[in-house]
Automatic annotation (TrEMBL):
NCBIfam families linked: GntG_guanitoxin (NF041359)
Record flagged with keyword Translocase: no
Pfam families: Beta_elim_lyase (PF01212)
Similarity comment text for this entry: Belongs to the threonine aldolase family.
A GO term from the CC aspect: cytosol
Cofactor: pyridoxal 5'-phosphate
Keyword field contains Lyase: yes
Lineage: superkingdom: Eukaryota
Record domain Aromatic amino acid beta-eliminating lyase/threonine aldolase: where: 57-344
N6-(pyridoxal phosphate)lysine modification, residue list: K256
Name this polypeptide is given: Pyridoxal phosphate-dependent transferase
GO biological-process terms attached to the record: glycine biosynthetic process; L-threonine catabolic process
Disordered, as annotated region: 397-424
Length: 424
């Protein structure tokens, strides 16, 4: 009976339509091809297991969906209770991730947000304490204030001096050391790789890690897209371990670009992971038959990362970057992996033009950000290139006609209004 419930949950997950805001949403169903699947009645139906509904969706790599090989993995899972540490499927995944990251222990969690928050809480002892981090980081902006509520910590957001990623000099300048009672001392430095699609070099992580260790400061790495950073030009397990050995804890995500339905892992030493396991239970993250999820995550790691499919996503981004540059467009950040942040305003493209181009092109894009993933197709990339052409042509025609210039790349917002996944 319980297995049937899981099947119902999974079916609901994959049949749900996307209701998140973003330009081009109405093209989603129009864009999907028909994938053959034999039903009991002998008719042909569309199956999301065979063809991802995210093929023409460039909003985020979180929209990747599980594959038929992930579904097939469920036939051989262990249905032990993971809260009681009886799920061998989950234990196998955790051991694999710990080994890849060069850590003694790892823990499966339900989301990247949960992983980051549990890791940070487990590295801290008691207030007063502060966490130094990139001002654009996910843990600072997009995790519902979890640092304040779960860790009672002050954050020290730092704008990278190079505009791309934190350097040791940034950390040293803003870290709070000493015993002055007016300040909350820095106890953790939280890094993110990739951030905005930009790769933080392993040498910079090493420099920060070595300095922090000398000052008694812990380092956490939000590696939700570390898989992408370690897939340039090809997947490298060695590079995964190299990044991880310079930090005390690291999180990696299975449900972003890897396409698993749910979950992340955090890795660290045994004491840190034991603390995280207890805190996971406290926030409702204990999972019974977790093997239903971790079997799919394991397939995602082996087939998508080690199968080189993230290199394909990175290649799609490079193709689009070359097209945008050829059309005279610029970028607000370098295109190192699978993400493009377009300077729409610099190209004279306003919200009306961009929205119209996306609708006409038949893809889904969020604002000025384009995120490629391995379930996009060459056809989808061609459509995205067409969007760029349409928008640039319209902007050029308006400029020649002397038309009014409007706010570029985004709809009008109230002061202080924020939208997840888009530049503000």
């Amino acid at each position: 009976m319980k297995v049937n419930v899981y099947w119902m949950i999974l079916r609901t997950r994959f049949r749900a339509s996307y209701r998140i805001g973003g330009y081009g949403w109405k093209h989603r169903n129009m864009s999907m091809k028909q994938a053959p699947s034999n039903s009991p009645s002998g008719t042909t139906t569309t199956s999301a297991w065979d063809l991802s509904p995210a093929e023409f969706d460039f909003r985020s790599d979180t929209l990747t969906t599980p594959t038929r090989s992930m579904l097939a993995a469920l036939e051989s899972i262990n249905l032990g209770d993971e809260v009681y540490s009886e799920c061998t499927t989950t234990q196998s995944l955790e051991s694999r991730i710990a080994s890849l990251l060069g850590k003694s222990s790892a823990l499966f969690v339900l989301s990247g947000t949960m992983g980051n928050q549990l890791a940070l809480r487990s590295l801290l002892v008691q207030p007063p304490h502060s966490i130094l981090l990139d001002s654009r980081s996910h843990v600072q902006l997009y995790e519902a204030g979890g640092i304040a509520s779960l860790s009672q910590a002050v954050t020290v957001p730092v704008v990278p001096s190079n505009g791309k990623y934190l350097q040791l000099e940034d950390v040293q300048k803003h870290a709070i050391l000493g015993s002055d009672i007016h300040f909350a001392p820095t106890r953790v430095v939280s890094l993110e790789n990739t951030i905005g699609g930009v790769i933080m070099p392993v040498e910079e992580v090493r420099r920060i890690g070595e300095w922090a260790r000398g000052e008694g400061i812990k380092v956490h790495l939000d590696g939700a897209r570390l898989w992408n950073a370690c897939s340039v030009p090809e997947p490298s397990a060695e590079l995964l371990g190299e990044y991880s050995k310079h930090v005390d804890s690291v999180s990696v995500c299975f449900s972003k670009s890897l396409g698993a339905p749910v979950g992340s892992c955090i890795a660290g030493d045994e004491r840190m992971i034991a603390n995280a396991r207890r805190m996971r239970k406290a926030v409702g993250g204990g999972i019974r038959q977790a093997g239903v999820l971790t079997a799919m995550a394991r397939v995602a790691v082996e087939e998508v990362f080690f199968g080189g499919k993230l290199s394909q996503a990175n290649a799609f981004a490079k193709i689009l970057a070359e097209k945008w540059a050829a059309l005279g467009g610029g970028f607000t950040l370098p295109v190192d992996t699978n993400m493009l942040l377009l300077d729409l305003e610099g190209r004279g493209i306003d919200d009306e033009i961009w929205k119209g181009a996306i609708e006409e092109g038949g893809v889904i894009i969020w604002g000025d950000r384009i995120v490629c993933h391995y379930q996009n197709s060459p056809s989808a990339v061609e459509r995205a290139k067409k969007v760029m052409e349409i928008a640039c042509k319209a902007a050029d025609e308006r400029r020649r006609a002397g038309g009014p210039k409007k706010e570029c790349g985004r709809r009008e917002k109230k002061a202080g209004e924020r939208t997840y996944g888009q530049s503000n």
